Amino acid sequence: MGELRVHSALVTGANRGIGLGLVQHLLALPNPPEWVFAGCRDPKGQRAQELQKLASKHPNLVIVPLEVTDPASIKAAAASVGERLKGSGLNLLINNAGIAKTNSLDTETLDNMSQLFTTNTIAPLLLGQAFLPLLKKAAQGSPGSGMSCSKAAIVNMSSIGGSIKEMYLWEAAHCVAYRCSKAALNMLTRCQSMGYREHGILCVALHPGWVQTDMGNAAGYTELQKLASKHPNLVIVPLEVTDPTSIRAAAASVGERLKGSGLNLLINNAGIARANTIDNETLKDMSEVYTTNTIAPLLLGQAFLPLLKKAAQENPGSGLSCSKAAIINISSTAGSIQDLYLWQYGQALSYRCSKAALNMLTRCQSMGYREHGIFCVALHPGWVKTDMGGTLEDKSRVTVDESVGGMLKVLSNLSEKDSGAFLNWEGKVMAW
Ligand SMILES: NC(=O)c1ccc[n+]([C@@H]2O[C@H](COP(=O)([O-])OP(=O)(O)OC[C@H]3O[C@@H](n4cnc5c(N)ncnc54)[C@H](OP(=O)(O)O)[C@@H]3O)[C@@H](O)[C@H]2O)c1
């Protein structure tokens, strides 16, 4: 694999998120660029502080005022970069600045569509035009045939959200303006690649993954918020399950909302997985996965016990059930010591051990909480098509709807004799 070796690079929207990450990584290259230009629309603002700090340590980092929706600002940026480069060209233009809104097909507006199209699609076109002379110069100044990012390139930060074929996560969020702007950006990238090929400029659209930035986090949260806005009986509870203080605060706020009545069902669903093998498993990963998948369900059981007990007392009649008071631990067949399910597909050591331990915890909870009238069960949801479930196509895989529908049906049919069991989403008893 060749190493990225550029004399100069410009990143737009470089003060936070992926843009800031790109700047940091460019500066940390074994052979860092002589010039990294960080485009930022408000260099003196609060959100540029991290970038300013970085610039004070790296004399080769230059912050360039750049509002990508303003042609005058783009022209001024191209002029100031040109001046700084003193006759040499710009190797890499990364059109990273972008915005997203979560409007649905019904709520999308002219204003929103125009704003996103201007920032995400028109700006990369204008930036390509304005920096073309410098990119051409870089291509001419770099010897050797062929095109590359080290020579002269435009990289447009696109998104899988713009894939017309995938219609990625449509059910979770329509984001019509964002999807259309990125599909259009993909087309622009093809146009640029056709038009600028003769100048030796490589053009590519890049999907960065679903990244934990302001934009990426907002996209992950809004579907739940949208649901809450439609259902007054849905309450979003801030809860970091590995933080005992957060667990206590969540129990207090749920208790307050319930105004003296109990909580019937605690579903410990939050979980993480690492794809580590027996050779590269680490103390850190083992601890993190165990904390989230095993210790958190224990602490949540403890913190919510008073509310679960209250629910059990409020429901007269003998026997335990999920309609009365129950803890449901979402486990996995990967934690079955007997089955060692799909070992060939992935060893996932920390995950397997954490879920085997969660099964034991479920048995312990069922023993300890039986006297309080609380039912406890470990459920394997199936191999479900989620981020954790991965992308492998297999006929045994189920959708979230199938899995959840099945589990709720199973829960409704369980009775006292099932407390402490390990079952799957279809009600089948799983091997320990
Ligand atoms: N995060 C993800 O999961 C994800 C997934 C797929 C694609 N992407 C793409 O990756 C790129 C970066 O995303 P991100 O997650 O890092 O987003 P982010 O955290 O929201 O950061 C966006 C950056 O763009 C800048 N920006 C927005 N409008 C601008 C304008 N008119 N002029 C100049 N700068 C402007 C912002 O500057 P201010 O601070 O001044 O607002 C900020 O620096 C975007 O093109 C996005 O569509 C992200």
From TrEMBL:
Annotated source species: Gallus gallus
Family per record: Belongs to the short-chain dehydrogenases/reductases (SDR) family.
One GO cellular component term noted in the UniProt record for this chain: cytoplasm
A Pfam cross-reference name: adh_short
Protein name as catalogued: C-factor
GO function term, MF aspect, one: oxidoreductase activity
TM stretches of this protein: none
Signal peptide from the UniProt entry: none
